[in-house]
TrEMBL record:
Ranges for domain Phosphotransferase system enzyme I N-terminal: 7-129
Coiled coil feature spans: 36-63
Family: Belongs to the PEP-utilizing enzyme family.
Catalysed transformations (reactions): L-histidyl-[protein] + phosphoenolpyruvate = N(pros)-phospho-L-histidyl-[protein] + pyruvate
EC number(s) recorded for this UniProt protein: 2.7.3.9
Name the record gives this protein: Phosphoenolpyruvate-protein phosphotransferase
Alphabetized InterPro entries for the sequence: PEP-util_enz_mobile_dom, PEP-utilizing_PTS_enzyme, PEP_util_C, PEP_util_CS, Phosphohistidine_dom_sf, PTS_EI, PTS_EI-like, PTS_EIN
SUPFAM superfamilies: Enzyme I of the PEP:sugar phosphotransferase system HPr-binding (sub)domain, Phosphoenolpyruvate/pyruvate domain, Phosphohistidine domain
Co-factor(s): Mg(2+)
Compartment list: Cytoplasm
Molecular-function GO term, any one: phosphoenolpyruvate-protein phosphotransferase activity
NCBIfam families: PTS_I_fam (TIGR01417)
Length: 573
């Protein structure tokens, strides 16, 4: 019988396939004890399972090749790190020894204990680390019973599961799996990010998926709306075929825009920069005619490892980015590490009550000046190979920027003295993501060469709504009159002082919002290359003078509905 199961779209695209239901790695294990004389055997059994899991991950990693090897490999490395985590392993040993529990029950207790800690952290980024941990624990558990843990995927199937680990996705796709539907998960998880770059449709948070879908059911998955139709009827199938045709036409049309300028109908050029996370992204950005890299988040170099990356290591990464853009500017954001990210280097303060409001971004950098200066030196050295811009995250005001400028000058002098070649001028910019900095932009506009609005954080701080808390629903949304007024304010101050204002938060990559941002005066967008052509199309379809004439009305909108009405009217011209 036909049924419609709602979820959240996490990676776009439609797919039709047979369901393959994978029941959760739930460790539904009853409390079981062993005798004192069985402890050593039980410990050995556990350690063998851990070793087998480790071997399995090594062999999975060895099988990866091509562009995915790096991206997926990093997730596998993270899983391998978790496997070596003394807290996890020692805790298990302790439970078996002191509690005389079976290895299975010890795994369950340890899992629940860690889940409680992660839950208490109240941060979706860290919560998605729990997914990684669950995955690792699930694999160990399977090995305790000598079961294969690889997900058997068959061409034409839709995997339906409680969750999916990033490390599985590429393999599933290679096996021909056409979409993934998960009961839990968030559109901000690593899996979601990876699914988007693999163009694999993914629906998350489809709460009824495990109860409502049986193995072999035919599923129609919509990765945009999050809707899953179980056993679609003829009408659904017709609409699906129409959607496929539309998508193919859209792709062909978008493909034609590769070498076209990002220019409005009335001839105004808009700069489209790329948010790049890897050299593959840089290559794509280059091929799509991006103005440059508008955001490279360097904290990725610091995550998933215990030692800090040294100057030479960082320099090589930054230099390769710069070479990849062959002459177009690359904006390197200095470390935005804090307790909200899975920091293992020990830099971030681990037990902050409220890490989003804690020592992160430039605050952390200035608390560890030796680390910060190492990074500045590495970036400056890369500037010998092409234009580089430095972007500072989480700036609250002028004092921090003056301090950064001072350190930057010092690093430049040192490098020159040591005989390094560096560019004569490296632009320094600030992320506008702390509301007070946005309001008081006039106070530091003279000490920056450019700014980039980080709406992901700006919106959460402005609305007091955690960007990762799904329970807040539409409360976390840029479509709020307060957000629009603040954006307008920042853009106006920049224009007044001839300081370029870009936007690099997710909002900039949403082509449906482009008319609104153009009306507010934004002329520089930075977004993932995957959606660059869509945004270019939206810009080419826009008439700037018309949008400008509607700007006052937009700023008068009193609520989300008013903003949506404005958008609808502006898009239908
Ligand atoms: C932002 O806050 O909008 C941003 C681009 O930075 P991040 O998502 O890395 O915090
Ligand atoms: Mg941010």
């Amino acid at each position: 019988m036909r049924a419609l199961l709602p979820g959240h779209g996490a990676s776009r695209g439609s797919a039709l396939g047979r369901a393959r239901v994978r029941l959760p790695h739930v460790l539904d294990v009853a409390e079981q004890h062993i005798r004192q004389d069985q402890i050593d055997d039980e410990l050995a059994r556990l350690h063998e399972a851990v070793d087998a899991t480790r071997r399995e991950m090594h062999s999975l990693r060895a099988r990866l090749h091509g562009a995915l090897a790096k991206e997926v490999g990093e997730f596998l490395d993270l899983h391998a790190l978790l496997l070596d985590d003394p807290e996890l392993l020692h805790g298990l040993d302790q439970l078996i020894r002191a509690g005389r529990y079976t290895a299975d029950y010890a795994l369950r207790l340890q899992r629940d204990r860690l889940a409680a800690v992660f839950d208490g952290m109240d941060d979706a980024y860290l919560k998605s680390r729990m997914d990684d941990l669950d995955h690792v624990i699930g694999r160990i558990h399977a090995h305790l019973h000598q079961r294969a843990t690889d997900t058997p995927g068959v061409a034409g199937e839709v995997l339906v599961s409680d969750n999916v680990a990033p490390s599985e996705l590429a393999e599933l796709q290679q096996q021909g799996v056409v979409a993934v539907v998960t009961a839990a998960g968030s559109a901000l998880s690593h899996s979601a990010i990876l699914a988007r770059s693999l163009h694999l449709p993914l629906v998350v948070g489809n709460a009824q998926a495990l109860q409502g879908i049986n193995d072999g059911d035919v599923l129609l998955v919509d990765g945009s709306t999050g809707e899953v139709v179980v056993n679609p009827d003829p009408g659904d199938l017709r609409r699906y075929r129409e959607r496929l045709r539309d998508a193919a036409r859209e792709q062909r049309e978008l493909g034609r825009l590769r070498s076209k300028p990002s220019r409005t109908r009335d001839g105004v050029d808009v700069a489209l920069w790329a948010n790049a996370e890897s050299l593959e992204d840089v290559a794509k950005a280059h091929a799509l005619g991006a103005a440059g890299v508008g955001l490279y988040r360097t904290e990725f170099l610091f995550l998933r490892r215990r030692e800090l990356p040294g100057e030479d290591e960082q320099f090589q990464v930054y230099r390769d980015l710069v070479l990849g853009m062959s002459g177009r500017p690359v904006t390197i954001r200095t470390l935005d590490l804090g307790a909200d990210k899975a920091d293992r280097t020990g830099l971030a303060i681990g037990d902050e009550d409220n890490p989003a409001l804690g020592v992160r971004g430039v605050r952390l950098a200035l608390a560890h000046v030796e680390v910060f200066e190492t990074q500045l030196r590495a970036i400056l050295r890369a500037s010998a190979y092409g234009p580089v811009r430095i972007l500072v995250p989480m700036v609250s005001g002028r004092e921090e920027l003056l301090e950064v400028r001072r350190r930057l000058r010092r690093a430049g002098l040192q490098l020159r003295k040591q005989g390094h070649e560096i560019a004569g001028h490296v632009e320094l910019g600030a992320m506008i993501e702390v509301p007070a900095a946005a309001i008081a932009f006039h106070g530091f506009v003279d000490v920056v060469d450019f700014v980039s609005i980080g709406t992901n954080d700006l919106v959460q701080y402005l609305l007091a709504a955690d960007r990762n808390n799904e329970a807040l629903g539409e409360l976390y949304s840029p479509l709020h009159p307060g957000v629009l007024r603040l954006l307008r304010h920042v853009i106006s101050i920049g224009a007044e002082h001839k300081v370029p204002v870009a936007m690099c938060g997710e909002m900039a990559g949403d082509a449906t919002l482009a008319p609104m941002l153009l009306a507010l005066g934004l002329r520089e967008f930075s977004l993932h290359p995957a959606t660059l052509l869509e945004l270019r199309k939206a810009i080419r379809d826009s008439d700037l003078s018309d949008l400008q004439s509607r700007a006052a009305k937009l700023l008068q909108a009193r609520d989300r509905a008013g903003i949506e009405r404005w958008l609808k009217a502006a898009t239908s011209i």
